[in-house]
Amino acid sequence: MTDTRRRVKVYTLNEDRQWDDRGTGHVSSGYVERLKGTSLLVRAESDGSLLLESKINPNTAYQKQQDTLIVWSEAENYDLALSFQEKAGCDEIWEKICQVQGKDPSVDITQDVVDESEEERFDDMSSPGLELPPCELNRLEDLAELVASSLPSPLRREKLALAVENEGYIRKLLEMFRVCEDLENREGLHHLYEIIKGIFLLNRTALFEVMFSEECIMDVIGCLEFDPALSQPRRHREFLTKTARFKEVIPISDPELRQKIHQTYRVQYIQDMVLPTPSVFEENMLSTLHSFIFFNKVEIVGMLQDDEKFLTDLFAQLTDEATDDDKRHELVNFLKEFCAFSQTLQPQNRDAFFKTLSNMGILPALEVILGMDDVQVRGAATDIFSYLVEYNPSMVREFVMQESQQNDDDILLINLIIEHMICDTDPELGGAVQLMGLLRTLVDPENMLATANKTEKTEFLSFFYKHCMHVLSAPLLANTTEEKPSKGIEYLRDDFQTSQLLALILELLTFCVEHHTYHIKNYIINKDILRRVLVLTASQHAFLALCALRFMRRIIGLKDEFYNRYIMRNFLFEPVIKAFLNNGSRYNLMNSAIIEMFEYVRVEDVKSLTAHIVENYWKALEDVNYVQTFKGLKLRYEQQRERQDNPKLDSMRSILRNHRFRRDARTLEDEEEMWFNTDEDDLEDGEAVVPPSDKMKSEEDLMEPISKFMERKKMKDSDDKEVLGKSSLSGRQNPSFKLSYSGSTKTSLSSPPSSASLNPGSPGSPGSPGSGARSSPSTTAVTTKGGLVGLVDYPDDDDDEDEEEEEEDVESKEDPLPPSKKSKLSS
Q1: Measured distance CA(597)–CA(376) in Å, rounded
Q2: Closest to 439 in 3D by CA, of 375, 520, 382
Q3: pLDDT tens digit sequence for 104-144
Q4: How far apart are CA 456 and CA 355, in angstroms?
């Protein structure tokens, strides 16, 4: 009994002035040492975690509403509410709050503490209450002035609310309204408008319950029709009684539920249509009105959900073929409103709500509704479907996979959604955009579940690509047909609505490329989708051409060689190049998108695409000088070809990638860089390479590292071997050697050394030091595993042992250097 009595829901008011559920638990009160005072504690009934810990402050204003609600503000913009399951529990906690604050539990609100002058406070505290003038026609003006003067002061507002409540003043005012309306007393009606509007701003639940009662609410609305600022009164009551009809699509047996529905609709109408816009008032002046509507909706959903006969009849009529279209239209609109109300439920109750709808067969019912011709009915069904997808996409996926085992592809629920997206008659495709978003949610692997026994992603994507993808891509295939083989694939319809639809489809296909990989890859390659998509780059609508480019860019971004081979085999860069050239010199999004695509290929060094682009389209692109992208691609291509022509370079690069031969990243001196940039073909096969700058170094500087190296070598092996050394590029002298290859030189080795020609003035050519080596057939460069290398004296103490092993290997495989090399080093 205690658990049920103290069972509560915790709500907080968000920035949009809507109540957010924080969970269900059990409330208690007690002294909390950390907060130094008596506090309200709410522990979750699910796991016992602390949902709320709030100290009862003496100055905080607590409100008791509808016998089961306690509302208060923790801070300036942080409102809280406890909704009790039973009135007895609410009364117990309210008594505790009043006890801490020293208030009488019979009041429904504890007084606010405000910054008022001492004189005003003394006057308010000294007067026992507010005395209202008699409710007579000639005193309405005085009453209106009293209400207006009381609103700025919270204390006076509270006294006014108590006086109105205790004297039954609202019913007296409504009687006076009927008299004024019969007498057509426009001045009295204007005063009553101001008085009733002021009573709304008192923000008191007890007053709302009287005003929104069945016998009073229409007269309250009538008072609010006579705004003094308007020349003619509004006709709100006429609309509510004649235009707005309550349609009981399924008979509601509970009179309390029926009355609650009527009340909620009318109060919502007052809030949305009758009262002035909220910006006229202070932010929190109508917070109790918001709360009243919110908790009414929660109560309505709960009462309907508990009525099993009602829901059974609802879904039976929805799916019954004998139900006429008008009746089904009403049923669908009711179900849509029902789902909208469910958004006010807390998460666990919303779970139970949608599970109930699922068990009742809401998805088969939607399938029937979506097959109807009525556009409005289909629109309502789409809204209901969106609630289900947003709540639990896995439930929808499971249903469509199960029905695929029994039904044809044409009548599957997901295919009906795709067809409605394709056939949307709205020129702006508003419905199609909504449906595309739902499809995207359904095919998103991020919200798919994976268990030990099955993987939802694998099963659903296999189903989707087998049964649904051909329906989604049908407009794309139909509008890019190959009518005449000589002309190739052409884009048939280029009107705005068709282009918008294709752009939506491309957006979803692009999403699939990013997230589905295997399935979409097979589909694109087997159906030649990319070729058809790229036809759209010739569209007169720039947004569609950009969608096509974005689709290809996502494919290239995957750096998948299957895709790359498909692109090269079918020469699919050709329509992109044509679009680029047709765009001319215009600096627009199309120009930037295409250049970025080629820049990506260059920066990421996608070798296969680089070669394909340069070999097939270089002549068309070589004159583009305002960006360096295409020249950079050509350079990448030439470097790649040089590496292919000289396999020794590739083996050398593999050696340099090895951790034992790490290259020290240092900037070359200008003179050395000039030497590296000289044509390597000038070197004769086997000629040793020595930079010209080394010739100018002193003999002492040059020989020091070699002598130290030889001393180390003698300690390991007594054999007399000679090794060629080179001083450090940065001028430092160290005893150890490392293999180095500069990949950033402008001219790489483009042919084997044996075929190189010699130019005068280059190292190793006639007229330069060391040219005598040409006569020695045994002349070779220092190599490791067949690769051509240079020697750099950067230290790497960690790899001494590895270097010594390499050096032994070099000595065992190579002949001693010829005398010409030794003379060059010692000269």
Answers
A1: 44
A2: 382
A3: 787 877 754 444 443 344 344 444 567 888 888 888 989 99
A4: 20
